[in-house]
Amino acid sequence: xxxxxxxxxxxxxxxxxxxxxxxxxxxxxxxxxxxxxxxxxxxxxxxxxxxxxxxxxxxxxxxxxxxxxxxxxxxxxxxxxxxxxxxxxxxxxxxxxxxxxxxxxxxxxxxxxxxxxxxxxxxxxxxxxxxxxxxxxxxxxxxxxxxxxxxxxxxxxxxxxxxxxxxxxxxxxxxxxxxxxxxxxxxxxxxxxxxxxxxxxxxxxxxxxxxxxxxxxxxxxxxxxxxxxxxxxxxxxxxxxxxxxxxxxxxxxxxxxxxxxxxxxxxxxxxxxxxxxxxxxxxxxxxxxxxxxxxxxxxxxxxxxxxxxxxxxxxxxxxxxxxxxxxxxxxxxxxxxxx
Amino acid sequence: xxxxxxxxxxxxxxxxxxxxxxxxxxxxxxxxxxxxxxxxxxxxxxxxxxxxxxxxxxxxxxxxxxxxxxxxxxxxxxxxxxxxxxxxxxxxxxxxxxxxxxxxxxxxxxxxxxxxxxxxxxxxxxxxxxxxxxxxxxxxxxxxxxxxxxxxxxxxxxxxxxxxxxxxxxxxxxxxxxxxxxxxxxxxxxxxxxxxxxxxxxxxxxxxxxxxxxxxxxxxxxxxxxxxxxxxxxxxxxxxxxxxxxxxxxxxxxxxxxxxxxxxxxxxxxxxxxxxxxxxxxxxxxxxxxxxxxxx
Lengths: 339, 296
Description:
The complex is a heterodimer.
Chain A: H1 2-23, H2 26-34, E1 41-46, H3 51-66, E2 77-82, H4 87-99, E3 104-108, H5 110-119, E4 125-128, E5 140-141, E6 147-148, E7 153-157, H6 161-173, E8 179-185, H7 189-205, E9 208-214, H8 220-228, E10 234-237, H9 241-256, E11 261-263, H10 266-270, E12 275-279, H11 281-298, E13 307-308, E14 312-316, H12 318-324, E15 333-334
Parallel strand pairs in A: 1-2, 1-3, 3-4, 4-7, 7-13, 8-9, 8-10, 10-11, 11-12, 14-15
Antiparallel strand pairs in A: 5-6, 12-14
Helix pairs in contact in A: 3-11, 4-5, 6-7, 8-9
Chain B: H1 2-27, H2 35-51, H3 56-79, H4 85-104, E1 108-110, H5 127-152, H6 156-166, H7 168-173, H8 178-204, E2 206-208, H9 215-232, H10 239-263, H11 270-295
Antiparallel strand pairs in B: 1-2
Helix pairs in contact in B: 1-5, 1-8, 1-9, 1-10, 2-3, 2-4, 2-8, 3-4, 3-8, 5-10, 6-8, 9-10, 9-11, 10-11
């Protein structure tokens, strides 16, 4: 008696989850029945929740819209899922996208790209806010020694060149600067890679680099204060997740000592950094979105390829410049605070 | 299909985490939070070994040994240095963060182009069979470990372990070295958790320094859902059945996440909905008792 009841409860629970699993099959079903006229489905996978990283998603959506794929006009269906930094959930999201038979997967940030590339070798993946497959160690080497990226990987990547341009900018903006302070996240691949490049670049430019390493955003304040006390002339913000999540702490500490912040990410300029020269996340997502729209139109994988970030912008924050008593740099686009 | 099979495979891979936490929490009555670090330890060591070209069938046991050592370190700090149990776990977990970074040499290692325990199944032509293969492999491993643990906990040694958790003073009076029992027990628990990390890394295609963060919550949820299931069956003592329930709890939890994902909620609400689902599952026996009471 009890046993049968238990089984009925269990069966009910399983059925509910099964029903849930099949619920959103409708778009792909309609596609199967109505053929090519159906609305294309885009699966957008984002690994973490973050304001700056959301910019790339906005850019991607806007580019799709400009390419004629507008969700509000029913010309595209976007399934957006965010793993909130949880890797098993990220894995299940990728499973879900494959199960929904989406026409393409958009992957925002490195882990989303790696997970998607592991789950499917047929559905095209459009990556953004991630390093080149070579830097992420996603490539295989063929017999001739060439690095080969996964064949279904498209979208837009960045190399470490952004470090070169943004560090070179220090020399032009602050010719007298000698000591550059920086924080880096020893647990993030992009941060460690950029750090090595940053060290080499500073050395070649004759700048002295003062480093503090952190492993979580709780440690940022102490580390920033330690740096500010070491007589640095300016702070270089490496664009990693810890800086993104605790930039305001760094900004406050540096502002108290009237130290300018230089970075490569325009999003951080909006949040108070003095100047940046590098990829803008909105533009990055936009470029990936434009490529995705191109693919959706032609349905030909040959119409698109993996590209490097096209737009590297020079931006500065006029409010920060005023507070620091610095002149607006020539050739830099002003960006006002998002606050 | 992919979503459901994926949830089952992932649930089975994480079942070892649940089983490990079951040992410390239910058998030793010890709040061990080394899990966050030892799961990542299993994943990162596997990643480092596989990238170096070591056979996956060697990398998996190697990860388990590393997990055992990490767990025994927690046990030793707790019993020999008389540090508070929670703090011992926190200390080892914190230290493992650096150890894991050293092992991998970077914070993330993709395992897409290396040979893993799942590689032999990658070429299966039939898509359903290909999805089924990891489930069968993991199921086999889970079954083997449940049988092994069931046997272990019935030997004199295993009974002494269980008694250490139930009534330490009594079993110490019988001449059992309880400190040694705890060190070995917490070690075994973390060996299972590292095994979980190793399989998960191979299944999801990467090892990441952050893969263990907060994972203990999920392990605890599997144990508690498992207890609820065992309670429904009226089982409170037989280890084998309780372990099966923990593994089922782990799969159910992943099923709930899959259901939450496919319902299409705002991603912001994902975690609270998962929490409510778990709460409802745990409340099942009480709800049943309440309904019964009213009928009478």
